[in-house]
Design goal:
This protein is of the alpha+beta class and about 300 residues long. It has 3 helices and 19 strands. Helices cover about 15% and strands about 40% of the residues. The strands form 5 sheets. Strands 5, 6, 7, 10, 12, 15, 16 and 17 form an 8-stranded antiparallel sheet that branches. Strands 3, 4, 11, 18 and 19 form a 5-stranded mixed sheet that branches. The chain has a two-stranded parallel sheet with strand order 1-2. The chain is globular, with a radius of gyration of 33 Å.
């Protein structure tokens, strides 16, 4: 090998050293680089409110599914004003403003709450409740109950709801289904559930069963000590339109607020001339018009 060939060979080997060094250095540090990466756990259920788009592995029981929550605004819509409704307060009659009435106590039960889609489909909650009776009978039903009372201020979590799309109406049952209107009280109602009678002794009466809708009031035409007590047992289906189509997105809680107008209970009721039976029939006829959707939103 002459001098020229030897020089070219040395230059070639010299030029190859950096490339080989970088190649083996990269292979050497590659495990260290990937050894620093730790997969992130999180909720990978796209329907959940805490869905983690940046998670790599699913976590154990960490997902929080969206809920339907119900709040109520109790009002008296007067001819020139809308005021917060209160027990023990005089309100004018819609028939004759010279007459008035006082509500001492009232409650409503609503159930079977559904969001109605633009195309007509209905979506309710997924929760269930197993009812056990002293007779030994048992029944599993959709757990979608709420009790409405002027003295209940906290929002009621109705249950888990998983859906998306445009909705135009709310459907509900005012009252309770026939199987609950019986003498046999369920023995396993959870604490703080609307059907638990320890929370309110007025919702159940021995020999009658649940009292789904109750009104205790006094027209000013009666002596102060006399009150009329009306029980409304027949369940009534109610459809409440939304002001505009409402879009529900995946992974968001639905907050529904109803308005209850107590003046509407007594529309066309003549305190001066109607008998108690006539009053009860007219008030029962008015009940579906008492309710309206005040607000619906996502959170």
């Amino acid at each position: 090998m002459d001098f020229k060939q030897n020089h070219l060979l040395e230059n070639k080997l010299y030029r190859q050293i950096p490339g080989r060094f970088l190649k083996y250095a990269f292979l050497l540090f590659l495990p260290l680089f990937f050894g620093c990466f730790e997969p992130k756990e999180g909720c990978l259920n796209i329907n959940a409110t805490n869905y983690a788009v940046d998670a790599d592995d699913p976590c154990a029981d960490c997902c929080t599914l969206p809920t339907l929550t119900l709040s109520v605004r109790h009002v008296a819509e007067l001819p020139n004003d809308t005021v917060a409704f209160r027990y023990g307060t005089l309100y004018p009659s819609l028939v004759d403003g010279r007459d008035s009435f006082v509500v001492d106590r009232a409650h409503f039960f609503i159930s079977n709450i559904k969001l109605v889609k633009e195309g007509g489909g209905e979506v309710g909650v997924t929760d269930t409740l197993r009812l056990e009776f002293a007779s030994g009978e048992a029944l599993t039903i959709e757990d979608n109950f709420a009790k409405l009372d002027r003295d209940i201020f906290a929002a009621r979590k109705v249950g888990t709801i998983i859906t998306e799309g445009n909705f135009t109406k709310i459907k509900l049952t005012l009252g309770l289904e026939e199987f609950l209107l019986q003498n046999d009280l369920p023995t396993n109602i959870p604490p703080r559930h609307p059907l638990n009678i320890s929370e309110d002794s007025l919702i159940f009466e021995a020999g009658t069963g649940y009292i789904p809708n109750l009104l205790i009031f006094r027209p000013d035409t009666l002596p102060e000590t006399d009150s009329l007590i009306f029980h409304f047992l027949e369940p009534t289906e109610i459809t409440l339109p939304l002001e505009s189509p409402f879009y529900v997105e995946k992974g968001f809680d639905v907050k529904l607020t109803l308005k209850v107008n107590y003046e509407e209970w007594f529309r066309f009721v003549d305190f001066e001339n109607d008998s108690p039976q006539a009053m009860m029939e007219q008030i029962g006829h008015n009940l579906p018009n008492v309710f309206a959707v005040a607000e619906i939103k996502l959170e």
